[in-house]
Amino acid sequence: MIGPGKAELLERIDRCGSIAAAGREMGMSYKRAWMLIETLNAMFRAPLVESTRGGPGGGGAVLTETGQRVLALYRRFEDEVVVAGGPHLKEMQALLGDAPGEG
């Protein structure tokens, strides 16, 4: 439903005020950025991003209250996963061999 890329896109839209500008910053086409936002908006009960069309005054986009909440919940989830998974990752790292071409 939401992952690191979509979360980053939401953060950049929040900062830039524009889906196009947020997509450009991520090296993403305008069409791809719009498709991701349309998908996110359709998945939740309320839209995460509201946009206004461009034109002489320019368009823009803002995170809705739901968008702000979803983004905050996702970032908290990420933080908790890092803490809870830390010991498991260290254990797996101890089992790794040398990378090809190293050692």
Give an account of the 3D structure.
This protein starts with a helix and ends in an 8-residue tail after the last helix. The protein is elongated. The chain has a two-stranded antiparallel sheet. It is mainly alpha-helical and 103 residues long. Helices cover 63% and strands 8% of the residues. The model has no long low-confidence stretch (mean pLDDT 92). The chain is built from four helices and two strands; from the N terminus they run αααββα. A hairpin with a 7-residue loop joins strand 1 and strand 2 (60-63).
Using brief descriptors, characterize the structure shown.
103 residues; 4 helices; two-stranded antiparallel sheet; elongated
Tell me briefly what this model is:
The chain is mostly helical.
Distance between the termini: 40 Å
Number of helical segments with 4 or more residues: 4
Beta-strand segment tally: 2
Percent helix, as a range, is 55-70%
Low-confidence stretches: none
Structural class: mainly alpha
Q: What is the H-and-E element order? A: HHHEEH
Radius of gyration (CA) equals 18 Å
The dominant shape is: elongated
Average pLDDT over all residues: 92
Question: If strands are numbered along the chain, what order do they take across the biggest sheet?
Answer: 1-2
Strand content: 5-15%
Largest beta sheet, briefly?
2 strands, antiparallel
